[in-house]
Amino acid sequence: MQSLKAFKLWLSMQCQMLGNVQAAILVQCAPENPQILAKWPSADIDSTLLRGAIQPVLEKQRLHLQLLDSQHYLLGYPLVIDGQQWGVLACTLALTDKKELPSILKWLKLGQFWLQFILHLTANDSSPNDRASIETAPLEPDQTAVASASQSNVASANGQIAIPPLNEALNTALVQITASLLKENSLQETGITLVNLLAGLLQATRVSLGVLDGQGKNLQLEAVSFSANFDKRTQAMLAIREAMAEAIDQGMRIHCTSNEDEQPAGVSSQIKQAHQHLLHGQQLQSVSSFLLRKGERILGAITIELDRRSLTTDQELFAQQAAHSAAAIMLLQQQAAAGLWQGLKHSLVARLQRLLGPDSWRGKLIAMAAAAFVVALFVPVTYHLSADANLQTTEKHLVVSPQDAYLGKISARPGDAVKQGALLAQLNDEDLRLERRKIASQAQQYRQAYDSALANGNRVEAAIASAQLDQATIQVQLLDQQLARTQLLAPVDGIIVSDDIAQTQGAPVKQGDVLFEIAAGQSYRVQLFVDERDIAQVQPGQSGALKLSSLPTEVFNLRVKLITPISEVREGRNYFRVELEIDNTPEQNALLRPGMTGTGKVQIGTRALGWIWFHDLWHWLRLNLW
Fold first, then answer.
1. Which residues share a beta bridge with 487?
2. 13 vs 6, 93, 175, CA distance in Å?
């Protein structure tokens, strides 16, 4: 019945610490039926109402809170042990202010750690009578169940084997120590309480507590039993600190007595020089150091000195379990006092230790990948600045409308290769031809008038007719020139790169309107659009390369010629135009067409790979945090 008493004591102290509890039950989630392990304030209370909070918690795997009336609540709290749903604490609370709930939940969470310690202590300690009572009375208000709770929690959260059970007196004392430590508000108060209780229970000459700093390097004496003030510089305190450090360095508890025959088996390889120095220096009978360990982390050590006897086996086990319980509580207090950043740091270190442990191949793989990534950040490589590119000719001719007219026949289309003198388009010349016929007819009349006046000897009329004839002749010549200009001819050999005007046939055009653009010759240049954040890295004379979208297999060599002050906005960002010369072979030249687009790269120089990857982000941060 030792296990039953432990659970009843846990529930009783939990309810007393909360202070607002009217009734409570502790239920374990058995594989088939939940079992009531303990009741409070007495075993004969009616648990019908309390059992109503069990099923919602088990189904939803979370807290259940039900308002009974204006000042009473039904609370179901899930108890998670070793990452598994272990059981439920159901209770009725009398609350005048709902703001008290957070502090109640905080105490319940601390009590959950205490319950885990009890489960480890009571493992394999259930009697046949306990088991018989469980099997015959699931969830009966007047019966309890404990064996399944003990058997299902043999292993701790970090995989350690359960500690053997203590006798009833020491078990109760251990629970009382844990409860006392949970009441303390600081690490120093916890340490003082721990050493005083251990010294009294074990009737030790002196019990001392040493705690490692956050980095686990420096060991400081935190508390000495029944000594409010102690000088850490005395020989006794220095010897105690050295003994603690000796146990911490070896990662195991050390027991040293004046009679070497009493040494436990299997510890001959231990180094006990500091313990023997303390033993003989203080004229003691035995010195024992126990580690404050939580998982793989060592928080400190407890050193117990006795001048007339040695610790019994049960007392050693009791001290070891007390140190184990105290370590968990002190770790929580350290993390609470360390602040947010220290807590995050410790959490990160713990995760890394689990990830990079000796059995984690995945952690080693991640570490190797991270190391390779860090090394790669400093590898020097050639940095190429990429930008959108546009191919243009170095010489371009325009064909414009010579006069106001209407578009007639269109003979050339965009992309056509034309020869010099080739007909591109024909303007409508009907009006000009009619005008020429009219003027030509008038000129014929003036010629006849001139001949008639000359035959009649009328010199005045002859002179007038001659002048009119000359004027008409000039007008005819002017109209002939205008008619000749209605034929738009290619001024040079080249390729038409302007828009298609075939769809505007018959539309009016004004004198000077551009109708055709002809790229002459086989000389090209490349225009890059460089982001303003990178323009400072581009210098005249730098080399580069070009790949066109229409010729992805061809690479053309470039050289920066001119950085223009002309910028334009593209997709919400500012870009500058950079002109580059293109160096291509005749075979490549035959493949090029003005207006082709692609991607150009300018060779800036040698940079670290990390700089290439992250310099944009770094510049953005510098600008926005300025």
1. 426
2. 11, 15, 10
CATH 3.40.50.300 fits domain 521-624 = no
pTM: 0.41
Instruction: Compute the Cα dihedral for 340, 345, 350, 352 and give only its sign.
Output: positive
- Token pair for 586: 């005749």
Chain centroid, CA 453 distance in Å:
107
Query: Can you tell me whether residue 116 is helix, strand or coil?
Result: helix
Residue 425: how many CA atoms within 13 Å on its side-chain side? 28
Confidence (pLDDT) at 128: 40
* DSSP per residue, 164-188: PPPPHHHHHHHHHHHHHHHH-SSHH
Would you state the pLDDT for residue 518? 82
Please state whether beta strands 21-28 and 423-427 pair in parallel, antiparallel, or not at all (unpaired).
unpaired
Strand partners of residue 389: 528, 598
Report whether pLDDT(89) > 90. Answer: yes
In SS3 terms, 322-379 reads as: HHHHHHHHHHHHHHHHHCHHHHHHHHHHHHHHHHCCCCCHHHHHHHHHHHHHHHHHCC
Phi-psi region of 122 (alpha: psi -120 to 50; beta: other; left: phi over 0): alpha
The token pair that represents 56 in the structure block: 């919602």
Please provide the CATH number assigned to the domain covering 166-263+270-338.
3.30.450.40
In the chain the first and final C-alpha atoms are separated, in Å, by: 70
Model confidence pLDDT, tens digit, residues 590-605: 788 888 899 999 999 8
Q: How far is the CA of 428 from the CAs of 178, 412, 421, 484, in angstroms?
A: 109, 16, 19, 11
186 vs 616: CA distance, rounded Å: 48
Which pLDDT does position 346 carry in this prediction? 67
- Whether 166-263+270-338 and 1-159 are alike in CATH topology: the answer is yes
Cβ atoms within 10 A of the Cβ of 522, count? 16
Q: What confidence tens digit (pLDDT) does each residue in 12-65 have?
A: 888 887 888 999 999 988 756 788 889 998 888 888 899 889 989 988 888 999
Q: How confident is the model at residue 97 (pLDDT cuts 50, 70, 90)?
A: confident
Q: What is the band of 340 on the pLDDT scale with cuts at 50, 70, 90?
A: low
The string of pLDDT tens digits covering residues 481-508 is: 888 778 888 888 878 877 788 777 778 8
The phi and psi torsions of 517 (rounded to 5 degrees) equal: -120, 130
Higher pLDDT, 185 or 277: 277
Place of tokens 């992250």: 614
For residue 226, what is the DSSP state? T
Distance between CA atoms of 117 and 83, rounded to whole angstroms?
Answer: 14
Written as one letter, the residue type at 184 is: E
- pLDDT of residue 542 exceeding 80: yes
Locate 168 and state its tokens.
């009833």
**Structure confidence at residue 359 as a pLDDT band (50, 70, 90):** low
By the 10 Å C-beta count (0-12 exposed, 13-18 middle, 19+ buried), 579 is classed as middle
Report phi then psi at 493, rounded to 5: -75, 140
C-alpha–C-alpha distance, residues 552 and 560, integer Å: 22
289 pLDDT exceeds 90?
yes
Superfamily of domain 1-159 in the CATH hierarchy: GAF domain (3.30.450.40)
Domain boundaries, the chain: 1-159, 166-263+270-338, 396-513, 521-624
